[in-house]
Amino acid sequence: MKLIIGLGNIGKEYHATRHNLGFGVVDMLAITFGKQPSDFTKHAKAAAEILDLKSEFGCMLVRPTTMMNLSGQAVQALAHYYKIAPHNIWVIYDDVDLPFGHMRVRLGGGSAGHNGIKSIMHHIGDEFWRVRLGIANDYLATTPTDKFVLDPFMAEEATKVPALLETAANYIEAALLSGNLSDHSQHLH
Predict the structure, then answer these.
(1) Annotated active-site positions, please?
(2) DSSP secondary structure code for residue 8 in this structure
């Protein structure tokens, strides 16, 4: 079984921010699998909302309900509860080191300063799959990173986000059906 974890911050004020792309992808995956984002339920033993698709698709979709910087607590609790090895954990998140519209998939690696990834590495090590979605644009150079990730997308970008989420969700669905992710780079739009 795979744990497919989208990273983000809970709360309406974060809903459309760059830092919540991971939540957006798992919500789109839910729709791809014939469910709704409202079908996620609170997990009894972990600070997370989950959509249990074990029997149909061999996975669980996860939105940690900790804030981003504490994501590792939820991931560790779920990995322990379901006895999931790190290489069967797929984490989807925004990345300021990739241009907007790019996706990079890789097993293991560093955190590149992403606080959600740092937290997960602290709790389960670094041998989990990362599905990184680029958010960098021209404004990143003149905006502090911690502000940039919590800003909404620019109007031109916002029109492309639904297609990005759908493309990423379709890629993850195909990887689930084939059995695993592989090192991969792709321009999503």
Answers:
(1) 19
(2) -
Q: State the residue for tokens 């990345």.
A: 95
Sort 67 into a burial class: Cβ within 10 Å, 0-12 / 13-18 / 19+: middle
**Do 25 and 82 form a contact (C-beta atoms < 8 A)?**
no
pLDDT, tens only, 68-118: 999 999 999 999 999 999 999 999 999 999 999 999 999 999 888 899 999
Type of residue at 177: L
Angle formed at CA 47 by CA 144 and CA 171, multiple of 5 degrees: 70
Instruction: Please report which helix (H) or strand (E) contains residue 89, including its range.
Output: strand 89-99
CA torsion sign for 129, 171, 185, 22 is negative
Q: pLDDT tens digits, residue range 143-162?
A: 999 999 999 999 999 999 99
Question: What is the percent of the chain with per-residue pLDDT over 90, rounded to a whole number?
Answer: 88
- The whole-angstrom separation of Cα 47 and Cα 115 is 17
Q: Which among 188, 168, 189, 184 is positioned nearest to 4, based on CA atoms?
A: 168
